[in-house]
Design goal:
alpha+beta; Transferase(Phosphotransferase), domain 1; 6-stranded antiparallel β-sheet; 6-stranded mixed β-sheet; globular
Length: about 550
């Protein structure tokens, strides 16, 4: 759970928004409060999804599915809005960690006895859902909440009734890699048996603390699901045997859920299990403090419009103060952004000598660490994407789909250009990225230092081994991309900071667990719309976007 950010709404429908719960595949999930004071989980579909008939049909299917299932094992629906954007769904809020969060915080697998009890409880939950004629289709540790009354299944975003056809796009992969059954990957054949497979894979993670089919590239994980064996090394033999039975390659060989429950041999309630009680209680957290403004968030009165001061524009572009796009140099393919709206940025940038910034020698402060972090790495799915403007007559214009998390002051300047061919609108080879603060002070930026890292993200998910998109799975890139080393650009007193000049791909890498995962790929490896995000960095996994732009790669 996270505190609200400045760009977040203060109300959705008649519900007051209190905090962020996380991001789903189609939008943001908030903690809310109903007019009567009940806590609810509010899932708001992203505006770019809302413009897609297919995505909207999928969201409507989710609402229909949740309405159809009135089970003690799921988060039941409370309210929904499907008439006009923004589309949203409100379900009962279930306090407690997800199974994945519990495993991570525990730092290892669950005890065999706890696993058997959890196995039986989840099998019973799935049987209840199936009794309504609904298949979950995306069971995994992230979609299981460990509540005080037992586990609950959430996120029916790709669930469907057994009689309905698939709502996925041609070539899109159903489910989640490592938890989707082989038959769903190879021919999108979904049945109750595919949910049983996901149950076995989920319990493999609970019993080992590891992904059920290992780590690595998407391609390698999918290959192991179809041709390999589930990872149950060092798992209690009877538990390992039951997991293997659930993930049998042949759907017809998998046990029925009633058989799974019987083989678990449960003789006591899961909520009485000391380890389960510790998992539920150890991660309980209060609602984060509300943002500074407004200092008091009243409950929304039903059917009453929110005050004008609480309304926010539904623009898909970021919020900026007096933003103006100006050309840097003569090329139409060069992009620059000046947040104060004053003329002259182009000439100043041409006159400035580009130089790599060095870490500040100033002491630590509340704004950032005393020493520059050496890198940044993925902390969550990144759903920021840049697209060129259809109405841009000169080229180089466009916008990103999500608002920046910080404004970064009113004087942030940057440019993105092909250094060899400044007049081109589509880039190949190398790309030169420059940025600085024209000026700023502690009132605007907080106390120094102010470290910035640039992320450059290809359009598609990249196969690490080939450096190119997966040929049969052209999935959108949901990583942070390739990032530069953070540098301090806090302006000197009375002056602006020097321009930092970076070259893609030379100055960029991707990092996982503090190590270099792969070097940046050439632009021509993945033609299309590339996204460039500037981050204010406080630590390797603590950073917030300041600005977003992009370019067309060919």
């Amino acid at each position: 759970m996270e505190a609200l950010r400045p760009q977040d709404p203060t109300s959705i429908g008649t519900h007051t928004v209190l905090a962020r719960l996380g991001a789903g595949g189609m939008g943001q999930v908030y903690l809310g409060r109903s007019p009567g004071g009940r806590q609810v989980a509010l899932k708001v579909i992203r505006e770019d999804f809302a413009e897609s008939p297919e995505a909207l049909a999928r969201f409507r299917r989710e609402v229909e599915t949740v309405r159809a299932v009135r089970s003690a094992y799921t988060a039941n629906i409370i309210d929904a809005s499907l008439a006009a954007p923004p589309y949203w769904l409100a379900t009962e809020y279930v306090p407690g960690p997800t199974l994945m969060e519990a495993i991570r915080r525990r730092g290892g697998p669950l005890a065999a006895g706890t696993c058997f009890r959890l196995f039986a409880a989840l099998a019973e939950a799935l049987a209840s859902v199936h009794a309504y004629g609904v298949l979950h289709r995306d069971l995994k540790p992230q979609n299981v909440i460990l509540s005080g009354v037992g586990p609950k299944l959430i996120d029916f975003g790709i669930a469907r009734g057994a009689e309905h056809t698939a709502l996925t796009r041609t070539g899109a992969m159903p489910g989640t890699p490592g938890y989707g059954a082989p038959e769903t990957l190879t021919r999108d054949d979904v049945s109750t048996a595919s949910d049983v497979f996901a149950l076995g894979a989920t319990m493999a993670t609970a019993a080992t603390g590891r992904p059920p089919y290992g780590q690595g590239t998407l391609e390698s994980v999918l290959y192991r699901v179809v041709h390999g064996e589930v990872d149950v090394d060092h798992v209690e033999p009877a538990l390992a045997e039951l997991i293997r039975a659930c993930v049998a390659r042949d759907p017809g060989e998998r046990p029925a859920l009633s058989e799974v429950i019987a083989r678990c041999g449960v003789t006591s309630a899961l909520v009485e299990d000391p380890e389960y009680q510790a998992l539920v209680g150890a991660v309980a957290s209060p609602v984060p403090a509300a943002p500074p403004v407004p200092t008091y968030v009243p409950t929304v009165v039903p059917h009453a419009a929110a005050p004008a001061s609480q309304r926010r524009p539904r623009s898909r572009t970021w919020l900026m103060v007096g933003a103006a796009v100006v050309a840097v140099g003569a090329g139409a393919g060069v992009t620059a952004q000046l947040l104060d709206g004053k003329a002259g940025g182009s000439a100043e940038q041409q006159a400035a000598k580009p130089a790599a910034a060095t870490p500040s020698s100033r002491g630590g402060s509340s704004s950032g660490p005393a020493a520059a972090p050496a890198y940044i790495e993925d902390t969550d799915l990144n759903r920021e994407f840049w697209a060129p403007s259809k109405d841009d007559k000169f080229g180089g214009g466009g916008s990103c789909g999500l608002p920046s998390e910080e404004r970064g002051g009113q004087q942030f300047q940057f440019s993105i250009a092909d250094p060899a061919h400044t007049s081109v609108q589509e880039m190949s080879g190398k790309v030169e990225i420059q940025f600085r603060f024209k000026y700023g002070d502690e009132k605007i930026l907080g106390k120094p230092p102010y470290y910035v890292s640039v992320a450059v993200k290809p359009p598609h998910d990249i196969n690490r081994e080939t450096g190119k998109p997966y040929p049969n799975l052209m999935q959108p890139n949901l990583s942070v991309g390739y990032t530069s080393k953070p540098v301090d650009i806090f302006p000197a007193k009375g002056w602006g900071s020097d321009f930092v000049k970076l070259t893609y791909p030379d100055d960029f890498k991707s990092y996982v667990d503090g190590k270099v995962y792969s070097p940046a790929i050439p632009i021509d490896n993945d033609p299309g719309n590339w996204t460039v995000i500037f981050y204010h960095v406080k630590g390797p996994k603590e950073y917030r976007s300041v600005m977003c732009d992009g370019f067309v790669g060919k």
